[in-house]
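Researcher: Checking consistency across runs. Here is Glycosyl transferase again:
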Amino acid sequence: MKFGTFDDQNREYVITRPDTPLPWINYLGCEAYFGIISNTAGGYSFYQDPRLRRITRYRYNNVPMDMGGRYIYLRDNTSGEFWSPSWQPTRKPLDEYTCRHGQGYSIISSSLKGVFASTRYFVPMGENLEVWQLTVRNDRGEALDLSVFSSIEFCLWDALDDSSNFQRNFSTGQVEVEDGVIYHKTEYRERRNHFAYFACSAEVAGFDTQREAFLGAYRGWDSPQVVEAGQCSNSIAYGWSPVGVHQVNVTLQPGEERQVIFLLGYHENPADDKFDPPGSQTINKRAVKTVIRRYLQAEEADRAFAVLKTYWGELLDRFQVETPDEHTNRMVNIWNAYQNMITFNMSRSASYFESGIGRGMGYRDSNQDLLGFVHMVPERARERILDLAATQMASGGAYHQYQQLTKRGNDAVGSNFNDDPLWLVLAVSAYIKETGDWSILDAMVPYDNQPGSETPLYEHLQRSVRYTVERKGPHGLPLIGRADWNDCLNLNCFSSEPGQSFQTTTNKEGKVAESVFIAGLFAVAGREMAELAAARGNSAEARELISQVEEMEAVVYQHGWDGAWFRRAYDDFGRPIGSAQNEEGQIFIEPQGMCIMGGLGLDDGKAEQALKSVGERLATMHGIVLQQPAYSQYYLHLGEISSYPPGYKENAGIFCHTNPWIMIAETLVGHGDQAHDYYLRINPSRREEISEVHRGEPYVYSQMIAGRDAATHGEAKNSWLTGTAAWNYVAITQYILGIQPTLKGLKVAPVIPAAWKGFKSTRLYRGVTYQIEVERKGPGNLTRLWVNGQAVEGNVVPLPETGVKDVQVKVELA
């Protein structure tokens, strides 16, 4: 069953039914001001940090689902009938409905009884505000007397405090209203530096700022008493819950249409604002009146929207492909790239599955996300790398998360996730390969954001590698710490042997559980680091790094190979995890992908055998599950992984983040058909036809799809903010299509399905546009390369001379 359709020409997904299985969302904003918007106008807005600068309220886990957002109500003043053109919150059946989600904007349109309404929501580039452009048209044969009501509910800035500190917050709400503009100034008395505003382009017939005055006691957003009565009460919120509501009365003749613009914005005063002296009770409205006047003009709003479209078009055009598969084209050219940019902005902080309150920016997450967006915004990728490195500790470890606004590490979560440091190496290597900007390695970066502790970024990378080398367990494998990539595999929990009391074992770190996965990751990062060292002329360091990688490989072969696949780990008592010795959890996906990506098993058949085991034991029609058999009960010594029911999340769910590692591994052994087959199994566009099963958005990846052991096998959860986006982009573009940046130039080495006759691609790389054409001349993956008509040895396109802007690349596969 489908609930919409792709409009590839306009780079939009068009939803044609409002009652999607789950809210299908989009993101507004791409700089400092952001919003989440669903296909029925639900969601919220914030400035920079979704916890500390939350502008509007949203209630997760609400009933009805997805309640609270950017709502507009229309009221036919002749009949008294009212409805929401976005369907929510009134849910009145509409004659027609569409929601067009695009890059940084959404357009929700509907018709009911001859009244057409369309609202375009977007955030202009360079501004800290969002625009709602409402167009209303009278398609009846008689005059229409209509009232339009806008509505939002203000959050009291700190979203955590707002949702919990009621004894205080029910007494702090404050607003000002001037010339139809509603200014939200709660906490301005103490903070004195920021406020929100809600403005309207038309003359207002009334307003409300007190929630109960608008909704009525014991009433909800589906039936506000003000809309029902047809007249605002001009309430002023003092304490309780401030809202923003405008009423605009419109008379339309047959065929006539009218546009009304609403602005929701944020302003932060400079520290030395002379218009805001201490003790002042009035906010500095002068600072925002100019921007309000500008964007309340339709021409300016239209111009700003055109600029936004151009911005996204230029980003997406940096890498385009034309393959025989429409789902590959659609995801690479539009939606996967767009999702990568959203994960750049949000990490794992704010979605319909992340509250924006607790996690902030993930260290491991953001380093991996960078792999998918570095080619689109290299200058911002550089900034992100330096932010991440500054949360690293002098030991080489790192805070697992940090807050967007403060850039400070999250003390509540802390560090000791022992894979975290190595991801920085992969991110920096990817950046240099993409840009050729070696100067980043000499940038001075502090540890734990402490002034005076700065060292060159390259030393941060050295400490990242050393962190693993210095922390090995009894088998010589890396210590897992609190967890590795799988946060729920907590092998250093209090645990016990049968018949013994709960206990822990100790070494210099206090625990001895080890990770085969981190060993594989070390092989990947160590080789990348060696390549950087060699390119900088540090040949001795490069040799030492390769020696350390080879030593780790030997340990994996001795203690990490289980006979037909790579083991996952060793617990606190030295017992193997992910082994045929186990009754449950015998084989895990992560080490199969990461060890092979690190080069293990490629020369002795172990990689082929491990991938065969994955295909036989882990692969399903909906993707590859994380482990098998699923854990049927809770095991204290395994931690959170066994707390989930079988088939969900880390307990044998299809954790989509890891599936691309297997796709990449399959290309490394030359299996193009299998790699692309796995790619399509979790490709959201390919899954659009089963939306009633998948349930999640068909235009973006989800973190998880329920596994074969689940009652809802194939159901997706946790969409948008997932490392799945970046890794799938890397798998399809750099390994299956084979267009891969290197330190020496652009490598073109496709491993594509045998049935493909070839493909074309346009790739902007280091300021040069590469026009790439791949043609299959026979079976296999060996390449012959021509650059601007000249044959070139190998599969790396040499960097062109300075001033060259276009390069023609022809590749033959045989």
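Researcher: Does this match what you'd expect to see?
Model: One thing to look at in this run: The domain at 739-813 is CATH 2.60.420.10 (Maltose phosphorylase, domain 3).
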